[in-house]
Batch of 2 targets.
Target 1
Amino acid sequence: MRRTLLSCLAVSLVSLFAGWYPEYTKRTRAEAESSAASLKLREAGQSLGLSQLKNRAGMLWDQVERNDYGATGEMASRLFTDLRAFTNELPPGDLRQRLERSLGSRDAIIASIAKADPSAKGLIRDLFTTFPEH
C-alpha cells in the first residue's frame, strides 16, 4: 500500500511538472518578447516625436526666412513648450543634454521674433541643427 501511494505521488509530481514547465517557458518567452516589443515601440514613439519637433523647427525657420514674423512668435512658443515636455520624458543621456541646451535659446529666439530682428534667422537655424538626423 505504501509503495502504491509513493508511486501515485511520484506520477502526480511528474505529471504536474510536465504540465507546468512548458507553460512556464511559454510565459517567460512571451514576457521577453513583450518587453522587447515595448522597447521598440517606445523608441519608435521617441523617434517620431523628435522628427515632428524638428519639422516644426524647420517650418519656423522657413517662416522667419520669409520675414513672416506674424505667427512665428506663437509657433516658437508652442515649439519650445512641446520641446520641454518631450525632453523631460527622455532618459538621461546625450540627446537629452543636447535638447536641454537648445531650450536655453528660447528667450532669445522669442524676443528676436517679437522685434522682427533678422538675427532670429541664425538663432532658429542653430536650433534646427541641434536636432539629430534619423
Note: Residues 2-65 form the longest helix (64 residues).
Target 2
Amino acid sequence: MKLLLVSASAGAGHTRAAQALEETARLSFPDVTMRHVDILDFVDRVYRKTYAGGYLAMVDRAPELWGYFYEASDRVPREGFRRNLVRAFDRMEFARFRAVVRDFAPDVVLATHFLAAQVFPPKERRKIPFRFGLVVTDFDVHAFWVQPHADVTFVATEELRAILAGRGIAGERIAVTGIPIMPAFAARHDRRRLRAAYGIAEGVPAVLVMGGGSGVGSMRGAVEAALGAGRAHVLAPVQAGIPALERGASRADEGGRPSGGEAARRPGDPFPHASPLSVVAGLPRGRSGVNPAGRQ
C-alpha cells in the first residue's frame, strides 16, 4: 500500500500531526510506502508567504483581528458560482501538487490541513481512485474543515462528530480518533526519576510554558508571570530562530539557574521527539504579582 501524508506549514500543528501519523504508520505498518509533503511547497512564493506568514503574523501581533476573521468565516458556503470559482482557483494554484499526487499514485491520502480537501475532486472524479481522509487537528470544527469531498473526516471527540454531522457531513463518514500525537508522548515515565534528572526538587511546582511550534504570543510575558508566582521551576521550550522564546529564557536566567538545570537536551532524554526543554528558573521571586495558577 502507498500512503501520502499531506500537511501545510501554516503554524506547526498541522505538520506535527502528519509527522505523528508518519511515525506511527512506520511502527505499525513497516511495509507501507509513505511520503509526507507540505502542500504549500507547491504554490508560488507570494501565495505561500501570504497564507502561512499572514496567519502567523496575525495570531502573534493581532489576535483579536484573527479572532474576528475566524468567527466571520465560520459559515459553510452554499454551492454556487462563488464556491465553484474558489475551487477553480485552488485547482490552478495547486496544479504542481496534483501532479505530485498523480506521480506517487497513492492508495490512501491523509491530510492534516483542509487545503488538500479543497483541491481534490469527489472520489468518482479522481483520476487515481485513492481514499481520502481529512484529519481535524483542532478541538473545534470551523467551516473550513467541513469538506464533503473527504471520504472520511477524523475528529477528536464525540462532540465534534455531532457538530460536523450537524453541518452536513454524513455520520458514517466521521470517525472519532483523537488528535494524532508522536508515539513518544504516549510512553509512561517515572515522575521522581525525571524530576531528579532535570533538577526539580520534590514538592516544588513545575510550570511548563508553551507557545506552539512557532512561539507565537507573549512567551516572555508568560515566563515572567510564572516566575513572579513564587518558588517554582519554570520550563520553556528553547528553539533556535524563535526570538520570543530565546528572550524569555535569557531574561529568566538573569536571576540564576537552579542546580541541575540545562538549556540543552540531556543524553538519554526520555522525550527524544519533544522540543528541548530548558529549566530556566527555580528561585523564589515575587516581583510580578500575577499568579497564573490562580486561574483554572
Note: Residues 45-61 form the longest helix (17 residues).
